[in-house]
User: What shape does this take?
Amino acid sequence: MKKRRTWLILAGIVFVAVVVFVVVSQQQSSRNIPANFQTVEIRRGDLTAIVGATGTVRANQTTVLSWQTSGQIEQINARAGDNVSAGFILATLAESSLPQSVILARADLVSAQKTLDDLLNSDVARAKAYQTLVQAQKELDDALTNRERKQYARSDQETLDIARANFIIAEDEVTKKERFYDQFSHLPEDNPMRAEAYSQLAKAKQDRNAALRNLNWLLGRPDPQEVAEADARVELARANLADAEREWNRLKDGPPAEDIEAARARVAAIQATLKQAWLESPISGTVTEARSKVGDQVSPGTVSFRIDDLSRLLVDVQVPEVDINRIQAGLPATLTFDAIQGKQYTGKVVEVARVGEVVQGVVNFTVTVELLDADENVKPGMTSAVNIIVSQLKDVLLVPNRAVRLVEGKQTVFVLRNGKQEAVEVTIGASSDTYSEILTGDLHEGDLAILNPVIQQAQQGPPFAR
Assistant: This one.
């Protein structure tokens, strides 16, 4: 009885299996779906279109500070993790260890600052320029007058009249002295009275001859050498006057702007030399690296600090040229990090490059995304997956990206119709990670898209991806 019962049970199981097989086969036949096809129903729905890329987090601004001179560190005022403001002195060098040029710059700064202050506040240079101008004009006038006399006569009429009168007087005096001498000429030569009379006569003749020479000189014309010397003095006086006029025109309205700028540049250059004795933060931020200690000997190029402005964190991503025109500043984005599991951050596009870069034949554009809700877990240098939301569409025809193939260079979706696969050429619009919008093509809501169509390998391209 037990064996019979066992055979009945086995027979019943076989019968049920056969019935199930027949029913399933009939159902598949009624739907015309081959058992080896994976299908997904095409439907309408909402689509969030994204452009995805990866990039590295960076600070809003970063600076690395290195020494520009040699010396020994005397003081350090900041450590890694400290927040500093722009202009904060991070470290200084001992003055005794500085090069001579840096030490002497203190004295040069005093002189340069005085020159700048004089240009800005003193009127001495302007007054001297005017004095020089007046003197140069007088020297030119005198030179012209002297040349005029050399060319035509050595004196005016009044001078000549005086010279003639002096000669006449001197001639008359000689006549008188000759008469006086005649009274004693018969006396011996050693007679005192005769000697006195002769001495007066000789003196009178000398005066007359001198007056005659002066009169003759005034009546005569100058020689070429004298004229050439007079011309040279005129040209020199004119050149001096031109220089004086240029200097006066330069200073008459106050110190020229270029002089002030030159003086300021000299002061700035000396101050820059003095600043080599310390490291000053050029930005406000956080000290992320501090490599030096008090007593370290440094040389030009030695790096001591790095400062990052962590108030804003940015991610630069490379976007292909086919997608760049869909992106503009202000678009929202989502960001995820391999180092931060289970959390998604939000951001927005803040900058889109206007010029692309060609890398291995591919043109990419740099797009900068700012994190809006960054926390202490996000650090510069981390890699981030960025999805930029370029559009949000409502009630559009959607197809899975896995169902879109490239066949002979054309976007194609294979659908199941009447139990057979059929290729439909389509035009894809916006896409997300999983779905794409169908813009054109003979597809309708409810069609079954084949995920694993049977096509020739030579014609088949990879599944569609954005």
Summary: The domain at 64-95+276-305 is CATH 2.40.50.100 (OB fold (Dihydrolipoamide Acetyltransferase, E2P)). The first helix runs from residue 2 to 31. DSSP finds eight helices and 21 strands in the chain. Residues 1-8, 14-32 have pLDDT under 50 and may be disordered.
